[in-house]
Amino acid sequence: MLNGVHWIAGESVSGDRLFHANNPVTGERLEPGFPEATTGQIDSAVAAAVAVHESRVLFPAEARGRLLKAIARNLEEALPQILERGVLETGLPAGRFEAEMGRTCSQLLQFAETVSTGLFREPVMQSADLQREPLPRPDLRRRMIPLGPVAVFGASNFPLAFGVAGGDTASAFAAGCPVIVKGHPAHPGVCELVGEAITSAVEEAGLPSGTFSLIHGESFDVGVGLTSHAGISAVGFTGSQAGGLSLWRIAAQREVPIPVFAEMGSANPVFVLPEAINESGEEIAAGLAASVLLGVGQFCTCPGILILVRDENSEAFKASLSRELFQGPAGTMLHQGIHAGYQKGLQEVAERNGVELVGKGPTSSGSCDAEAGLLAADARRFIDDPVLQAEIFGPSTLLVECDDLEQLLQVASVLEGQLTATIHATENELADHPQLLARLEDRVGRLIFNGFPTGVEVGESMHHGGPWPATTDSRWTSVGMSALERFQRPVCWQGFPESLLPEDLSADSGSGIPFRLDGKWHGRPSI
Amino acid sequence: MLNGVHWIAGESVSGDRLFHANNPVTGERLEPGFPEATTGQIDSAVAAAVAVHESRVLFPAEARGRLLKAIARNLEEALPQILERGVLETGLPAGRFEAEMGRTCSQLLQFAETVSTGLFREPVMQSADLQREPLPRPDLRRRMIPLGPVAVFGASNFPLAFGVAGGDTASAFAAGCPVIVKGHPAHPGVCELVGEAITSAVEEAGLPSGTFSLIHGESFDVGVGLTSHAGISAVGFTGSQAGGLSLWRIAAQREVPIPVFAEMGSANPVFVLPEAINESGEEIAAGLAASVLLGVGQFCTCPGILILVRDENSEAFKASLSRELFQGPAGTMLHQGIHAGYQKGLQEVAERNGVELVGKGPTSSGSCDAEAGLLAADARRFIDDPVLQAEIFGPSTLLVECDDLEQLLQVASVLEGQLTATIHATENELADHPQLLARLEDRVGRLIFNGFPTGVEVGESMHHGGPWPATTDSRWTSVGMSALERFQRPVCWQGFPESLLPEDLSADSGSGIPFRLDGKWHGRPSI
To answer: Which pLDDT tens digit goes with each residue over B422-431?
Structure first.
């Protein structure tokens, strides 16, 4: 069933420098081996993608919608094989794969629906006014076009929803860009299966094969080769800060720099104010522990820092939190690299001056099994030591204890960029401290009240992004329909007659795309 | 009238390391001297701007609109002094200052109008659905907030419209960001006068003085200090490629990199096809010469490369072009640096292998007076030698002669990123070569048919941008209302009760800002 191949412009391609995935539960090496992409293979994939972009075959909305729907269909069909292999490669439970497949396909179909409405492309036109003084006004028509071939680096922690057919790929296709995915080496089998589903979908949608390629690589060289290739126009990445920032730097050093949209996770601070602890400390502690433990802490929105004020209730809160965190083994992490990184990160922070290791949970015997961790530090230490802000990717959290609300505000002021910040408070309590909201808003992409940061809704109001270093560019989201805006750019056509205009810039073509002409919308749903 | 001062958070501030502007016509040094900003002065300006941003006083649309209108009013009043000094500092005719003041004020008022409609901020909201399976949906509300303090580097060639109160400043204020302008050292007197007008406007609008600062500097250090300051969130720049790319690199090396929106000009290639030359060669040659000579060639949209096919009419076209270009002195350039750069650039390209200097125009006797230049090269040479694509900032153009339309398409394929590309052709002729449009569209921000690239309309359909190296980010425009989108970013508020929401995220506040709630627009003008 699995052949250990790249999918390059419609062809399955093998190689001889092989790497293998491992079963994180048993430590066993999984067959088959997968090839490292060569420079020549990267060139072939990119050349095919460039040709597709230049042909403009992905520009029409209809082609993009057809492709997205075909991918969703093929993925659903391939679920049994993907699930079977995925459980072996990731240690994730089968139910998680089913749920993630639901999210992945619904995301593809949402993009297909959005594309069909013409939203996000929306041309804006102004008619010529040749009588205008002092100078005549030319006919001007502006619309978005796809940026060009996009390189996607899938995440290890969401092998489907942020993987080969995940949000970055779906949004790049929705924008009309050919895609080349560098598969995550921790689950190459899942990558091959999903890549096969997309390759078939491209053919079924009647599109040229260069629309999609999947290449494998365990070494950093493959990612470097892809990101620095002159034919690549943008990069989508979900993963670690080290990985994302490396790609960003490579892209910035190109002769023609390109945008790298890296969503790199963050520490997702949670502020628990005194009245909230007083009113419902137990419940908040239970919710926070569940959020820390969710997916064995391997979510980019895992709450890694909890800030509270030391008072007569805070010790009880801390005890509840320990109890909830340590009630059982935290589970199997995705692969040895993540597992080792978690242990190292936890130890490094625990050894910082003024940090106390409050406790560790039990563990079970699997090769990548993790134990939950709870650290604590005085706010003064936290404010002075930026190392304490580092994301420890895994099921641990750092309790930061403040003398008073004034110091809690100081903690808010030194935070680096975050995907999210959460506040637990009573309504009155927070109304008395509006500065907290302002300070946090300047540092995050999403603010949460009396909730938990894990669980990222796919919807038009979501923003999954945030200031550096949570992402490389705070103005974009990697979740939700707006994600496609990352992969397009405006072009203005001036003075062209109707016969020479592209369909979507013609007011008379009947393309069905909503447009704005001389200040008035045409065909835009009034909803 | 002029005091040789910075305007730092409402105060006029002098210094002792002084530099002077020169009159480009007479070469005479102009009094007074202007101070180089010190590190301490940069710190003061940025600290004041950060405090204003954190106070959120610029977030309400009403405050932003009031400020923009007050600036336009004060500038109009200061026109006589600005004009008197501006003519001395730039050599530009008085009429040019009047026209540019019109554009500058109308731009400010357009932004005020746009801000008042709430467009570009448009919150998108989804109500909670606590019954949803498998998980309840939280209440989610997303809207744009200002990025934070913006550093603006004004251009020398549009001392008003792209200067201290130009498009970058206006759009940053419109987005709700405090602004610190680094004035252009070629016209510090104009900068001081415009800075004074803005400083008064900030006070009249009842806003804190840190909303705006103007600092001077002739050395590169001042720009470096400002761009690398931790309190700056974004940079707007209009000017040379060398200057823009330097700032971009400095910003990329910061601990927290920030976006630099640099509009750096380009060679703006013009393709003149055989039938167009046959039908109206004389007229096109006259139009192109006028476009090359406009503003002594000191426009970022100056057509610096003309591509045509060698045939029985092309020599006559070349002769017409020479005649039109060389019929009089080209005029006085803005300052000695630009004048010297023009002469050097012209000579460097003229000395490349295979390039012919077809001719130079007459010159007059001013210290910065320029002569028009016409260069020619075979398309083969152009394709092989990237140096021939460099923008020569001034009144010259390079004629690229092709054997046939196939070779002309090859020329289109090797072009680097451009603000604009122009095609002169008959409708049938271009319809026969659709590849030309596709290849050019991938390389430009604006395509022009049977027109000229100079003259950038301020309107909602305009796009003044383009792929690297014309700008640092092809997805944004520096002209038109969309320019404000560069300086804001989305934030999502999850689960907040009405009482804790900012006014513009409340569906009930009656703020007048249009919003989308559960898929339906409220208060958005249906035009």
So the answer is: 999 999 999 9
Which of B130, B475, B504 to mutate to probe the A interface, most A CBs <10 Å? Answer: B475
What pLDDT score does B527 carry?
A: 47
pLDDT in tens, B46-101: 999 999 999 999 999 999 999 999 999 999 999 999 999 999 999 999 999 999 99
Vertex B388, ends B162 and B360: CA angle to 5°?
80
CB contact under 8 A, A526 and B527: no
CA distance B329 to chain A (A): 25
Selected catalytic residue, list A300, A302, A368, A402: A300
- Which chain A residues are within 8 Å of B126, Cβ to Cβ? 457, 459-461
Digit-coded pLDDT (tens) for A127-181 = 999 999 888 999 999 999 999 999 999 999 999 999 999 999 999 999 999 999 9
Identical fold at B6-15+45-126+140-264+476-486 and B270-449? no
Asked if B24 and B335 count as a contact pair (C-beta separation under 8 A), the reply is yes
Task: In chain A, count H helices and then E strands.
Answer: 14, 23
pTM of the predicted protein model: 0.97
- CATH annotation of B6-15+45-126+140-264+476-486: 3.40.605.10
Q: Cα separation of B276 and B309, whole Å?
A: 11
Question: Letter for the amino acid at B250?
Answer: I
DSSP label of B297: G
pLDDT grade for A527, boundaries at 50, 70 and 90: very low
A36 is catalytic: no
Q: Which of B53, B142, B461 sits opposite A463 (nearest CB)?
A: B142
How do the domains of chain A map onto residue ranges? 6-13+41-126+143-264+476-486, 270-449
B191 is annotated as an active-site residue: no
Domain spanning B270-449: CATH 3.40.50.2000: no
List of residues 6+ apart from A487 with CB closer than 8 A = A146, A147, A150, A171, A172, A175, A176, A177, A234, A236
Q: What does the alpha-carbon distance between residue A164 and residue A204 come to, in Å, rounded to a whole number?
A: 18
The token pair at B436 is 């030309």
Q: What are the chain A neighbours of B178 within 8 Å (beta carbons)?
A: none
Among chain A residues, the shortest Cα distance to B444 is held by: A491
Query: 441-500 in B: which are within 8 Å (CB) of A?
Result: 441-442, 444-451, 455, 457, 459-463, 465, 467-469, 472-475, 477, 482, 488-497, 499-500
Q: Which two tokens stand for residue A404?
A: 């008073």
- Cβ separation of A145 and B438 shorter than 8 Å? no
Predicted local distance difference test score (pLDDT) of residue B459: 85
CATH code given to domain A6-13+41-126+143-264+476-486 = 3.40.605.10
pLDDT (tens digit per residue) in B468-514: 999 999 999 999 999 999 999 999 999 999 999 998 898 887 777 88
Q: Model ipTM? A: 0.96
